[in-house]
Amino acid sequence: MYFCASKEINMRQVYFDNAATTQIRSEVIDAMAICLKNNYGNASSTHSFGRSSKSLIEGIRKEIGSYFNVSTGEIVFTSGGTEADNLVLRSAVRDLSVTEIITSKIEHHAILHTIDELVKEYDITVQYVNIDANGMVDYNHLETLLQSHEKQLVTLMHINNEIGNMLDIRGVALMCKTNNALFHSDTVQSVGHYALDLQDIPIDFLAASAHKFHGPKGVGFCFIRKGSGLKPLIFGGEQERGYRAGTESVHNIVGLGESLKLAYTNLEKESAYVKGLKEYFISKISKELPKVEFNGCSGDMEKSTYTLVNMRLPVSEEKSAMLLFQLDLKGIACSKGSACQSGATASSHVLSQILNAEELQKPSVRFSFSIYNTKEEIDYLLEILKGLINA
Predict the structure, then answer these.
(1) How far apart are CA 195 and CA 54, in angstroms?
(2) What tens digit of pLDDT does each residue of 317-335 get?
(3) How far is CA 5 from its chain centroid?
(4) Identical fold, 14-24+267-390 and 26-265
(5) What is the Cα–Cα distance from 125 to 377, expressed in whole angstroms?
(6) Which residues are catalytic?
(7) Where are the domains of the chain?
């Protein structure tokens, strides 16, 4: 018999890695457990057990569509953000005659590595929009790149998962529409944390993942604008209106639906709480460790998400190698960048674009917050950081 380990004995545990994944809500676990017990029919089956599962899925699809002001048929369930990104990028080139992709060098690897493969397979052109020293997109340069006569797809993430910078997603969507370019955004860090009206934001495609807003891992969705012409990445049955073959994971979809419902029902209250934690963190660390420097715009409450900070610590190169390990020994979970790169020896591809060689020598750490964090945990973190830095 296998059991998942819980918190280690006699150690304070503080989780500040919510940008990597979030703690699942108890209400979501309960909803999924009920589904696993009662709704085990294959949603493609025509008998009552199958119809029960199908009804659950379609009800959740409709509810999700209502949050984004889109039709039910424009929501396609996937295994998460990475699959959704691959579906859009690959089909845009293969099926929509896209010959040029505009992106940035600080996108998630689900975007960058997929584009690398598309270049090999289809010999497409890739244009990288300029970013400034803080990692913000140069919108004037983007406008220039959009003057091409090629069939173009722009893919820029709404919130950068490492430095938290926010894209003017509506402005970019309007710019793309004016220039007859398709626009896709990886919104994995923003769905469930920000309201997005997709009638007001004329985006063509977006990707989302449940485990970023206190839902289960292994499920997400792709928004596909009606009439886009996108075709499936995975072939087989006709599930998900032909966009995504394979028997639907009903309990995971239920978990996605419940977590998104709770996120948007409580959005105002919960976002204000988490924003307060970040403001408290910035205020305290700026006073107690004034030599700390924030990467990108993560220290700016107006230009970055309220959920994370990324900062360089005034620590020698010798100490920096063991910093995350020492924090872990104190029960503090955080990261040096994307969780998808854990174990990698190379520096963050995002920070490499905005920091100079000297700055890259200092350890950069990302702390990301959720409704399950407290100011007391932040005080504990700062106490530990001061001890490590001043040792």
Answers:
(1) 27
(2) 777 778 888 999 999 999 9
(3) 26
(4) no
(5) 47
(6) 340
(7) 14-24+267-390, 26-265
Q: How is domain 14-24+267-390 classified at the CATH fold level?
A: Aspartate Aminotransferase, domain 1 (3.90.1150)
Q: Residue 281 and residue 308: Cα distance in Å, rounded? A: 10
**Residue-wise DSSP of 223-265:** EE-TT-----SB-SS-TGGGTB-S---HHHHHHHHHHHHHHHH
CB neighbour list of residue 226: distance below 8 Å, 6 or more residues apart: 71, 73, 74
| Residue showing tokens 């017990």 | 37
Q: What is the signed CA dihedral for 331, 334, 335, 339, rounded to 10 degrees? A: 100
The 10s digit of each residue's pLDDT in 96-132 is 999 999 999 999 999 999 999 999 999 999 999 999 9
**Which three-class secondary structure state does DSSP give residue 29?**
helix
What pTM was estimated for this model as a whole? 0.94
Taking domain 26-265, whether its CATH number is 1.10.357.10 is answered by no
Using an 8 Å Cβ cutoff, are 273 and 378 in contact? no
